[in-house]
Design goal:
The chain has 364 residues and is of the alpha/beta class. The chain has 12 helices and 11 strands. The longest helix is centred in the middle third of the chain and has 18 residues.
Amino acid sequence: MFTRFGELLPLRTAATAITMGEGNTPLIRARNLGTRLGVHELHLKLECCNPTGSFKDRQVSIGMSVARQFGRTRFAAITSGNVGNSLAAFAARLGATAYIWVSRNTEKSKRQQIDVFGAQVFTIETGIANDNAFDNPYEAAVRAFPTFCREHDLVPMTSARSVNPFMVEGAKTIAYEICADLGRCPDVVAAPVGGGGLVGGLNEGFRDLKEIGLTDRIPRMVAGQPLGYFAGIDQVDDPECGGARPLDAKWANGVIQDSGGVLHRLTRNEIVAAQADLAGKEGIFAEPRGAYALAALATEAAMGRIERDCIAVAIVSGTGLKDMATAIEISARHSAPSSTVASIWDSKLDPATGNRTTHRVEGN
């Protein structure tokens, strides 16, 4: 990553980078799923192949490398799992100290991965989404975290532009690699939405390439965000909107609008079905968040909004080994004599979360 794109990254020299070989992940042709979606050229960007199993390795590597240039060796993060996994691993490699706070409902396998690397781990209670998200203890901790880090001389490694803008640079390298490997910019890129930084970072990467004359376009962004705990990134300005506010929500939503793209809110059934299709049709084992992009792209294709001759890329952001509970559920469905795992195109709306809503936004 650093040797390939070092001139576009905020480092004095690639020799000072803290790296574990992150980046340069496979971009594979998904012929089986492409046929099902009616897309002649569908590719999967396998961010699950990074050292700790998610794209967060790119962000943590750059954030920690920049901090090292300033002599900083104490790091902290509040995380649902993947940033904590990555930070703990890179801190071990640097010989640095990492303090990591995780929510009470973080997947057991992610918590164990943080423990294995020797980071100091703390737990935050996680409330339910309600009309006042700031009453949620996890949400309140996230908002107070930058101040806490300043007071205790810690480098905040929350991967939000407003907290640590250097970490966003890692997501940009995904865009660089996609264009380099395809030999051109894709027409459509599908990405998951957690905090929103991945969508924003991808867009910045494509814009970098356009500004230096290596492409003449910015791809249309199709984003997938689950219904439930987090507020929709297009709803965070609504005072009556319940749920925790993703830190990069406005940035991500603006990127989707500017690209002429669309945000799809996904039910759990749609997400699990996308996981099953990635595994059963292409041999890719993704965690739930790693399947958001494909689920959103499938919805878009079902609505007839993906042209057959376009080049589309879906980001598989993390490995399924991070959330074995869902894997067990998929396996159980396969084993049931009277039931099979529904594909994305056959899945039903999840009665527990209600109807999925689709937010269509027109670009400039």
